[in-house]
Amino acid sequence: MFQSTATAPAPERLHALDALRGIALLLGIVLHATLSFVLASPRFWIIQDTHPSLVLSLLSFAIHVFRMTTFFLMAGFFARMSFHRRGSWGFVKDRLQRIALPLVIVWPLVFTSVALVIIWAANFPNGGSVQWTSGWPALPNFRLTHLWFLYVLLELYVAMLLLRGAIVWLDASGKLRTFIDRLFARIIRNPMAPLVLAIPIGIAFCLDQRWVNLTGVRTPDQSLITNAQAWICFGTAFGVGWLLHRQIDLLRTLERRWLPHLLLAIVLILISFVLSGVMFSAPGAPKLPYSFATLRLVSVVLYAPAIWISTFAAIGLALRFMSGFSRTWRYLADASYWLYLIHLPIVMALQVALSQLNWPGLIKFAVILIVAIPPMLASYHLLVRFTFIGAVLNGGRAEKRVLPQGGIATA
């Protein structure tokens, strides 16, 4: 057996990490709500509001840096927990139910709804086709929508099961696993750990001549073929989560370093955001003393470490301040999966509806969240939480009393 070197996890830590998983999904709703207000040229979202906001641009940029890396790290952590509790076939069955089935059922409904919103948006001068589309409307290149993360999760599950099987077969003595555990522990305990983990994705950024820090990690939402950046960044995060569960005491290191990680993450994100504005300055602005290629290289040097430093900051913050059980966070963590599945067409429709109004961008953004989230929460409570849909997404109620983590926390 592929034995862990760690003892059983403390429930308090599971509360913190599961809450963080839910926060990562809920931040996705906030992120998508900001996109119509982002100051970007050329425009990259379906609708551009008539009142863009610098504050919301920064908020969008900051969330985009760490959200999905944090989510996939949590996914890897809880995947190993679920695998060892359920066994191989139980794990596969559970993943097919909670990940594959929602993707197959929800995707056509979401895609159709998004398509209708896009067609509606195209009636406005600041809506319709965007830079990564070949024409109007912007449907052909929007295949997986925001559900791409389920698709990538399934790929990572398969890859990890195959890799684990190969290691167990080749490493009968366990020496290789012991070596990997020791090496991983040395990396995580070293203050330079985020820089080490940033090397693979930094190289991927450098090799992609189209990459700029505004886009972050290139996600596979426009294709059924997962790109190299997504595999490298999210695969690394998933693997780190898996290895963290083998040595859960390493979480104490991340908890102790929450403040320096947070401060450094804020600095790197702010500098990267300012640099993005410099790189894409308006026509007629003073000519820069450095070439675009040089600024792009500086962006890589800043952005790649920012991904991991901010991810570790998020984990440390959760462990430091959210370890105790909270009914509110327990509920939101359970609801976050459903809310994230259904939110995109709702948020986009509200963006289109408000886009032409002469209101400040921050007010419109607040209205979008205030109008969208309560009905979505109500739909979860009335239609999902106590029904067969909730059993599919979050597991049965009896199971939830045994496992402190629910939903796709076991992803």
Polypeptide structure, described:
By secondary structure, this protein is an all-alpha fold. The protein has one domain (11-410). The chain has 14 helices and no strands. The two termini are 21 Å apart. It is 70% helix and 0% strand.
Précis, in short:
This protein is mostly helical and about 400 residues long. The protein has 14 helices and no strands.
Secondary-structure blueprint of this entry?
Blueprint: H1 11-34, H2 54-86, H3 88-121, H4 148-170, H5 175-189, H6 193-207, H7 228-246, H8 251-256, H9 258-279, H10 292-321, H11 327-354, H12 361-384, H13 388-394, H14 397-402
Helix pairs in contact: 1-2, 1-10, 1-11, 2-3, 2-7, 2-10, 3-4, 3-11, 6-7, 6-10, 9-10, 11-12
Q: What are the key terms here?
A:
single chain, 411 residues, mainly alpha, disordered N terminus, disordered C terminus
